[in-house]
């Protein structure tokens, strides 16, 4: 039972990342009809927003402390972060410690700008082009963004720690009345799951209960008719592209403490996320979320040593095997709509 609970938790953790990226992918495809292979790069940029803010907050100035000396007896040069100099040692240290959550505020305007520039500068020219053209150009853009990150930040992973209060682990065993220390799970992974649920709920509420969201959903169903009503649907779809970029960026920010950011992390998630989108059903937002969590849990159980000893390497291919079986049974995916990607 403890192993099952632990794998479910692991699956929800992985599924949260898959679902958030797939949600943004589906928003873009559902509104613009564009297969965006650069979406994983947006996730990567979000993670490096957390890295950048952490570096900015740790910028320091040097002072000489005569009360402390080095091994030669010379006064020591002490580096003090500017935020500690401006706000005091305690407040400044807290700001640095909470750099990852604060990075969400830092990344939102950046991702809005990146999404707007990407859509207006490149994507809009490929709306009516074949999906193969869209894949090629967005994949090329993803490689360019990846190489830019590699050039400025290097090829190695950059540790981006979570706040101290979330660096421990939660004892699920004790909470469930089991033996203590049987089911231990990191706090930050639980925070990530809660964050993902909040963002997913917010996106669905925005589309379901706001006038803007209702117009967007109408445009997804029948773009020409909405345009004939005098509504500038293209402008709204541009905003949706930027919002999808923000969702991917925030997902990357919060994932930074789980997996230290590196220049290829976007590509690592991209292929899996597209599998999630296809399994859920192209253009289906609920399908993307459902498939994200379902495949995350499957992958988690496949990574158990007992399973891998029976079928070596199953953890590397389980998602693709599940996709094959699901698509054979339901060619449109779990919740796919008729006519999408069938022309």
Description:
The structure is a single chain. With 343 residues, the protein is mostly helical. It has a single domain (2-59, 98-325), classed as ABC transporter involved in vitamin B12 uptake, BtuC, CATH 1.10.3470. Helices cover 68% and strands 7% of the residues. It is built from 15 helices and 4 strands. The chain has helices at 2-32, 39-57, 82-87, 89-97, 99-121, 131-153, 172-175, 187-209, 211-221, 223-228, 233-255, 265-280, 285-302, 305-310, 314-329; strands at 60-69, 75-81, 169-171, 184-186. Strands 1-2 form a two-stranded antiparallel ribbon. The chain has a two-stranded antiparallel ribbon with strand order 3-4. β1 and β2 (75-81) form a beta hairpin. α2 (39-57) packs across α12 (265-280), α5 (99-121) runs antiparallel to α11 (233-255) and α13 (285-302) runs antiparallel to α15 (314-329). The longest helix has 31 residues, at 2-32.
Number of beta-strand segments: 4
Strand content: 5-15%
Average pLDDT level: 84
By DSSP (H or I, 4+ residues per run), the number of helices equals: 15
Shape: globular
CATH third-level topology: ABC transporter involved in vitamin B12 uptake, BtuC
Based on secondary structure, the structural category is mainly alpha
Can you tell me the number of structural domains? 1
Radius of gyration: 23 Å
SSE order: HHEEHHHHEHEHHHHHHHH
Measured as a percent range, the helix fraction is 55-70%
* Quaternary organisation of the protein chains: single chain
Cα(first) to Cα(last) distance is 47 Å
| Poorly predicted segments | none
Level-2 CATH architecture: Orthogonal Bundle
Question: Looking across the biggest beta sheet, what order are the strands in?
Answer: 1-2
Q: Report the biggest beta sheet as strand number plus sense, adding barrel if it closes.
A: 2 strands, antiparallel
